[in-house]
Design the sequence.
């Protein structure tokens, strides 16, 4: 079963990094297909913690070829820092491949990200400030810089000139900032070119050949379904396609080669940045989830907003991603609650909605309708099989499974690689 897509089902930080790492020994390629260093994945291996932003989580597995696909936006300075950090810790990063067609984040993108957020004031998105939105905007506006442009100085200069033409007017006249010199950007990008060169490849072709040869290729999403630019809570989203379909456009591999879609669902919900969040808690229980679940951003350190599990969102994730298997993470965090509330539908101005409202105002007005399930007090972090879980905990998982409409194949009971319960083999059954 060669083509597997792994996505986040909620608003990010579901534990995608850990799930990818779990499959690391059994896949040959791990492809990041969207986003950039706005992502923050924590992977814990034998007690050692690794925080990854731009690199695919598969870089930690010795036999995996990690790939940065064409759909990613790459801040090359950050890439080198991340590689250096891993090299120092003895991780072999030499297999990394980067698409020649991936777009580059430059300093004018990060500057614009920060100033536009400031200008939006109350209407800000709460971005990570990494230049993601402006870099994707340039791509769509056809004034982006691609990795391959670094290898033709004259083309690179023309493209940077074109990109800065209007931006410098904006920076000077609207945002009251200094203009950015073309030379400054060109020189910086050219300085990266030699070190980057051996990694640059036609990754679409390499992945296609790998699939032809029967290799296992895992496509790992950054961000998540409700942060997807088309299917998320627009405009409070990121600027890329984080749903399973993004794996195809973001890597150059067609939908006919995708065999399985794994979605990662946290046993409660979190969100970083602004935007609607129907089950959000502003009380002690929200604080309990934040503290017990250590819900602080890996990228920006911001406290994450927390709330109960929303199965309307889970159901939506099943539908738009075509989920075949869920990984339910952080079930251990719910231990010790008398009752565990699960949102099963919304009340929107007196009308029950079982599906995600298509109208943004309805979603902003959605009040969660909860079912309360009996909790459990036993420490489940040492459980390694379904039978070891307390009966109320099993009932919770089965209830969620029924609500979201796809099977929960793996359950996370701790941050470590081995802290899981496997009900169905993600690659075989
Ligand atoms: P990602 O962005 O989806 O990769 O997720 P993050 O790494 O940002 O956030 C998930 C956090 O939960 C990380 O700190 C993981 O180490 C941790 N984690 C993942 N699965 C579990 C689990 O089952 N239980 C617990 N307690 N922590 C987990
Ligand atoms: P991982 O991969 C959680 C959020 C930001 C902001 C919005 C837009 O770790 O799950 P951007 O900088 O992308 O333009 O910000 O998206 N956001 C994330 N939230 N996890 C992430 O990544 C995120 N990446 C972006 O907080 O609300
Ligand atoms: Mg994260």
Sequence:
């Amino acid at each position: 079963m060669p083509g597997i897509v792994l996505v986040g089902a909620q608003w990010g930080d579901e534990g995608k990094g850990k799930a990818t790492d779990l499959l690391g020994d059994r896949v040959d390629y791990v492809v990041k297909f969207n986003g950039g260093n706005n992502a923050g994945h924590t992977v814990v291996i034998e007690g050692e913690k690794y925080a990854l932003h731009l690199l695919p989580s598969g870089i930690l597995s010795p036999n995996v070829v990690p790939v940065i696909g064409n759909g990613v936006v790459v801040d090359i300075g950050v890439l080198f820092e991340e590689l250096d950090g891993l090299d120092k810790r003895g991780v072999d990063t030499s297999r990394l491949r980067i698409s020649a067609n991936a777009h580059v984040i430059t300093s004018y993108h990060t500057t614009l990200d920060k100033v536009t957020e400031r200008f939006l004031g109350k209407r800000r998105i709460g971005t990570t400030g990494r230049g993601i939105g402006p870099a994707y905007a340039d791509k769509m506006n056809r004034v982006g810089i691609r990795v391959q442009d670094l290898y033709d100085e004259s083309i690179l200069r023309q493209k940077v000139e074109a990109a800065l033409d209007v931006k410098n007017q904006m920076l000077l006249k609207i945002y009251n900032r200094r203009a950015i010199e073309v030379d400054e950007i060109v020189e910086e990008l050219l300085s990266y070119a030699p070190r980057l060169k051996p990694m640059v490849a036609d990754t679409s072709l390499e992945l296609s050949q790998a699939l032809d040869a029967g290799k296992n290729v895992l496509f790992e999403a950054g961000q998540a379904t409700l942060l997807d630019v088309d299917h998320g809570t627009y405009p409070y989203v990121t600027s890329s396609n984080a749903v399973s379909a993004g794996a195809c456009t973001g890597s150059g591999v067609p939908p006919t080669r995708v065999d399985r879609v794994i979605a990662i669902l946290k046993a409660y919900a979190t969100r970083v940045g602004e935007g609607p969040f129907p089950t959000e808690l502003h009380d002690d229980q929200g604080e309990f989830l934040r503290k017990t679940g250590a819900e602080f951003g890996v990228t920006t350190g911001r406290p994450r907003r927390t709330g109960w599990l929303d199965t309307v969102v889970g159901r939506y994730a099943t539908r738009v991603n075509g989920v075949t298997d869920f990984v339910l993470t952080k079930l251990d965090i719910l231990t010790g609650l008398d009752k565990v509330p699960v949102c099963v539908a919304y009340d929107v101005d007196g009308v029950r909605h079982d599906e995600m409202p298509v109208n943004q105002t309805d979603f902003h007005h959605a009040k969660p309708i909860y079912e309360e399930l009996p909790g459990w007090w036993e420490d489940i972090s040492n459980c390694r099989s379904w039978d070891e879980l307390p009966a109320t905990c099993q009932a919770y998982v089965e209830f969620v499974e029924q609500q979201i409409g796809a099977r929960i194949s793996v359950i996370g009971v701790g941050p470590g690689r081995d802290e899981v319960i496997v009900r169905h083999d993600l690659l075989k059954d």
